[in-house]
Amino acid sequence: MPAKMILVVEDDKNISKLVRYNLEKEGYSCRVAPSGEEALDIMKKEKIDLVLLDIMLPGMDGLEVCRTLKQQQKTASIPVLMLTAKGEEVDRVVGFELGADDYVVKPFSTRELLLRIKAILKRGSGAPEKKAETLIAGDIVIDIPRHRVTAGKKDIDLTPMEFDLLVTLIERAGRVQSRERLLNDVWGIASDVTTRTVDTHIKRLREKLGKAGNMIDTVRGFGYRFKEEE
To answer: For residue 129, is it within any domain?
Structure first.
């Protein structure tokens, strides 16, 4: 099996060199782009499995790059892990609203970065432990092998993270899921991402699902529950 190709979009040469060294040491293939424009050009020509994207870039910033990727059918499903030196919640929330799958705040540990990359790629590979190939909940139909979701016979375009979150909620329909439990089970690692991360993804899921999104209940002070029936 060919190595996963990771595109590192980072204008700081020292950081990109360090990240590339550690990624290749772990067995990944790696391309580096110092700007958003160059990153988009590379993705037109090559197959990329994950984008490691700095927010603060010259010219087109990382948020605009993420928005562009998620708006194009060819690249919409490619996971994005954002790097930010700010560490402010507003940057994280905006990134998630644009479709980013996760984020790491600079300065970051190499171990944490590699764990997050591994978790994201594992989610996108089609988890074999899911027994059912099709899940049906009200008007929502999920074709797991094809990563296809429909609501009221309308195709719903979800990011890999949103897809896994919806599958997890439906598989556990009727049971309340704490934010911490969802972070651990869906994100795949014990994460220091704030629980606002879960709230942001739930909000996006509800918006994309339309009327069917009402099946996701908020349990105040604890988490979320998918209704067993309308």
So the answer is: no
CATH number at 197 reads: 1.10.10.10
Q: What is the pTM of this model?
A: 0.62
Tens place of pLDDT per residue across the chain (230 aa): 578 999 999 999 999 999 999 999 999 999 999 999 999 999 989 999 999 999 889 899 999 999 899 888 888 889 999 888 765 666 666 777 788 888 888 888 888 889 889 888 876 654 444 456 889 998 999 998 888 999 988 999 988 888 999 999 999 888 888 888 888 888 766 555 556 778 888 999 999 999 999 999 998 878 899 987 64
Which range of residues forms the domain containing residue 110? 5-124
Contact call for residues 229 and 126 (beta carbons, < 8 A): no
Nearest CA among 163, 182, 161 for reference residue 172: 182
Work out how many domains the chain is built from and give that number.
2
